[in-house]
Write a structure and sequence with these properties.
The complex is a heterodimer of chains A (439) and B (149). With 439 residues, chain A is of the alpha/beta class. Chain A is built from five helices and 39 strands. In chain A, helix 2 links the parallel strand 1 and strand 2. The longest helix of chain A has 36 residues. Chain A starts with a helix and ends with a helix. Chain B is of the alpha+beta class. Chain B has one domain. Chain B is 31% helix and 20% strand. The radius of gyration of chain B is 18 Å and the shape is globular. Classes of the chains: A alpha/beta (439), B alpha+beta (149). Chain A: InterPro entries: Carb-bd_sugar_hydrolysis-dom, NosD_copper_fam, NosD_dom, PbH1, Pectin_lyas_fold, Pectin_lyase_fold/virulence, SCF-Subunits/Alg-Epimerases. Chain A: It comes from Anoxybacillus pushchinoensis. Chain A: Pfam families: NosD.
Chain lengths: 439, 149
C-alpha cells in the first residue's frame, strides 16, 4: 500500500512539474538596464520597438523578443555580446555593427547558448563565436553588406569551438558563409548559403558533418583546408561558376567522407589536392565544366559508385593516379562506350579517363566549343584504341547503369518478364481457341 | 632621322627599365588566387608576391605559402620577393621587411607571421595585440614553417 502511495505521489509530482525559470520581466526600454537588474534564470520579454545597442548579456537568462524588435548597434563594434552560459536569445532583428572585427552577435567563452529566429543584417560578421561549446545557431537569417566580398566578414565564424550546431540558417552576401577555425565536432545541417565567397570554409577543423545544406552561386561551395575526420553528406552544391570556382575543394586534409551529394553546374565540381584517406562515394556529378580534379598525391583516396553525367570533362588528373574502384565496383560514366555481355552490371572493358581532350582544353579553352561534336567523338574513339599508355587514370569496373537505377532496372525487368509471359500465354491460348473454332 | 633614332633609343630604354624593375602588381581579389593553396586573396594586406626573371608574377595569400613555394624553386629564377606592411598595404622587399610572430596571430593560413615596412609599425602591432616576437629576415629564415594554433 505504502509502495502504491509512493508511486502515485511520484507520478503526480512528475506530471505537475514543469521547467522552472525565474521571474518573467517585460521590457519596454533600456535593454542593458533590464539585463543588469535580472537574475540568473529570468525570462526577459522584449516589447516591440527599436532599441539601442550594444548590449552585453552576462547572466543565464532567456532573452525573447516579440515581433518587431530591433537592436541597432549604430556602428559600435558588437551589437549583442554574450559572455555567460545557458543563454537563450530569440526573435529579434540585430543590425549595424562596426567594421573590422565587428559582429552582430559575439559569443565568448560561453556554453549552452541558443540563438534562434534572429535576423542579422548590415553587420561585418554575423555571429562570431570564440572558445564556446554546445552552441546552437538555429533558423536565423544573416545578410551581409552590399560591398565587395573582400570587405565583408563571415556569416558565422567559429574560433576554437566544440560541439556547435548550425541548422536551418539562411546566409547570403557574406565573405564565407560558415567559417570554422580550429573548430571541433561542428554540425551544419539544412543551411542555405548563397552569393558569398565560400559557402563553408574549414581551416584546421576536426570532426563534424555538413549535411543537407544547399550552397549555390558562391565562388566555392566547400573549401576544406588542413582538416580531418569530416563528413560531407547529401548536400546540394550548384552553380559555383566563377572561373576559379569549385563545388568542393579538399586541400591537405585527411579522413574526409563525401557521400551522396549532388554537384551540378559548377566550374570544377570536386578538387582533391593532397586529400588523404578520403572516400568519395555515391555522389552525382552533373553538367559541370569539370567534374573531378586531382592534384598532388591523394594517398588512399577512393572515388567509387558516383555518377558522371553530362560533364564537359569528367576528370583531370594532374598528380599521382587516383583509385576509381573498390575492386568490385567503379563509377557510372556517361562517356563509357563498351558493353556488358555477361550482364553483371559492370562494363567488360575498363573506362579510361580521356586525356587528349583535357590536354587540348587546358591549352586552348575555346576547344570546349567542340564538346560532343563528331570531331571530338572521332578523337575520343581513336584515342581509346591507341592511347592506353597515356590515359590519366582508369576505372576497372565501370557501372553500366546509375547505381540507384540498377536495382530499379532489375525490379522492372522481372515485372516486364512476368507481364510479357502472361501476354504470350494469353495470345497462345486465344490462338489455340481460334484454331479449334475454325476446325 | 636623328629624332627617330632618339625616339627609338628612348623606347628601348623605357622597355628595358620596365622589364627589369620587377615592381609588385596590385592585388585583385576577384582574380588573384594563391598558387600554393588555391585560396582567393581576400585579405589583401597579407598577400605576398614572387616575380620571376621572365616577368611571371606569382601571388600568395600568406607569407607561409610563399616560403613553402620558395623551398621548391630554383633561386636563380627569382627576381624579386615582396611582402606587405599589414597596417597600410605598402609593398616591401622580403629581405628588408620587419616581421612579428606569434602562434595566435590570425593570418589567412594561420602561419602566425605578419610583415611590416619598419620596426615602428611592427612594435605598434605587437602592442595592440599584447604579444609577439620581433624578427628580422634572418630570424624568419630560421623559422620552422608550420600551421600554428
Amino acid at each position: 500500500m505504502y509502495r502504491l502511495c509512493f508511486i502515485v505521489i511520484c507520478m503526480f509530482t512528475l506530471l505537475s512539474a514543469k521547467t522552472v525559470y525565474g521571474e518573467e520581466i517585460v521590457v519596454h526600454k533600456h535593454l542593458q538596464q533590464a539585463i543588469d537588474g535580472a537574475n540568473d534564470g529570468d525570462v526577459l520579454i522584449i516589447k516591440q520597438g527599436v532599441y539601442k545597442g550594444p548590449i552585453t548579456i552576462d547572466k543565464s537568462i532567456r532573452f525573447i523578443a516579440e515581433p518587431g524588435v530591433v537592436i541597432d548597434g549604430e556602428g559600435s563594434e558588437y551589437v549583442v555580446v554574450i559572455r555567460a552560459s545557458h543563454v537563450h536569445v530569440e526573435g529579434m532583428t540585430i543590425r549595424q555593427s562596426g567594421y573590422g572585427r565587428g559582429a552582430g552577435v559575439f559569443i565568448k567563452e560561453s556554453s549552452h547558448v541558443t540563438l534562434k529566429n534572429v535576423r542579422i543584417e548590415d553587420t561585418h560578421y554575423g555571429v562570431y563565436v570564440e572558445s564556446g561549446m554546445h552552441i546552437n545557431i538555429v533558423n536565423n537569417v544573416i545578410q551581409g553588406r552590399d560591398v565587395h566580398f573582400a570587405q565583408r566578414g563571415n556569416g558565422i565564424h567559429l574560433l576554437k569551438t566544440k560541439h556547435v550546431a548550425i541548422r536551418d540558417n539562411h546566409i547570403s552576401r557574406v565573405q564565407d558563409g560558415i567559417y570554422l577555425d580550429w573548430a571541433k565536432q561542428t554540425v551544419m545541417k539544412k543551411n542555405e548559403i548563397i552569393a558569398s565567397r565560400y559557402a563553408i570554409h574549414l581551416m584546421y577543423a576536426e570532426g563534424g558533418i555538413a549535411k543537407e545544406n544547399v550552397m549555390t552561386e558562391n565562388i566555392n561551395g566547400i573549401m576544406m583546408m588542413m582538416s580531418k575526420q569530416f563528413t560531407i553528406e547529401r548536400n546540394t552544391i550548384a552553380k559555383q561558376l566563377d572561373y576559379r570556382g569549385y563545388g568542393v575543394l579538399i586541400y591537405d586534409s585527411e579522413h574526409v567522407v563525401m557521400h551522396n551529394n549532388t554537384l551540378r553546374h559548377n566550374n570544377t565540381a570536386l578538387s582533391l589536392q593532397n586529400a588523404r584517406q578520403c572516400e568519395i562515394r555515391g555522389n552525382e556529378f552533373i553538367n559541370n565544366y569539370r567534374a573531378l580534379h586531382s592534384l598532388y598525391e591523394n594517398k588512399d583516396a577512393i572515388v567509387v559508385e558516383n555518377q558522371f553525367l553530362g560533364n564537359m570533362e569528367d576528370a583531370l588528373i594532374q598528380g599521382a593516379p587516383i583509385v576509381f574502384d573498390d575492386g568490385e565496383k567503379g563509377n557510372y560514366w556517361d562517356t563509357y562506350r563498351f558493353y556488358d555481355w555477361n550482364d553483371d552490371g559492370i562494363g567488360d572493358a575498363p573506362h579510361r579517363i580521356r586525356s587528349m581532350y583535357s590536354r587540348l582544353l587546358q591549352r586552348w579553352p575555346s576547344v570546349q566549343f567542340y564538346f560532343q561534336s563528331p570531331a571530338l567523338a572521332l578523337l575520343d574513339t581513336t584515342e581509346s584504341f591507341f592511347a592506353q599508355a597515356q590515359a590519366q587514370g582508369e576505372d576497372r569496373f565501370p557501372l553500366m547503369d546509375i547505381p540507384d537505377r540498377q536495382n530499379e532496372r532489375k525490379k522492372w525487368s522481372w515485372k516486364l518478364l512476368l507481364f510479357g509471359s502472361i501476354l504470350l500465354l494469353s495470345s497462345l491460348t486465344m490462338l489455340e481457341y481460334g484454331r479449334r473454332k475454325i476446325k | 632621322m636623328k629624332k627617330i633614332a632618339s625616339l627609338l633609343f628612348l623606347c628601348f630604354l623605357v622597355a628595358c627599365s620596365g622589364e627589369n624593375a620587377y615592381e609588385p602588381k596590385e592585388i585583385n581579389p576577384d582574380i588573384d588566387v594563391c598558387v600554393v593553396c588555391n585560396m582567393g586573396i581576400a585579405a589583401e594586406q597579407y598577400a605576398t608576391e614572387a616575380i620571376l626573371k621572365d616577368g611571371t608574377v606569382y601571388t600568395f595569400d600568406d607569407i607561409g605559402c610563399m616560403m613553402e613555394w620558395m623551398n621548391q624553386q630554383n633561386d636563380d629564377d627569382i627576381a624579386k620577393l615582396y611582402v606587405r606592411d599589414v597596417t597600410n598595404g605598402e609593398w616591401v622587399e622580403l629581405e628588408q621587411a620587419v616581421y612579428v610572430y606569434n602562434a595566435t596571430y590570425w593570418t589567412p593560413m594561420s602561419y602566425g607571421v605578419v610583415s611590416f615596412a619598419n620596426e615602428q609599425n611592427a612594435k605598434a602591432y605587437m602592442e595592440k595585440e599584447g604579444q609577439g616576437q620581433l624578427w628580422t629576415y634572418e630570424q624568419l629564415k630560421q623559422h620552422r614553417w608550420g600551421f600554428e594554433q
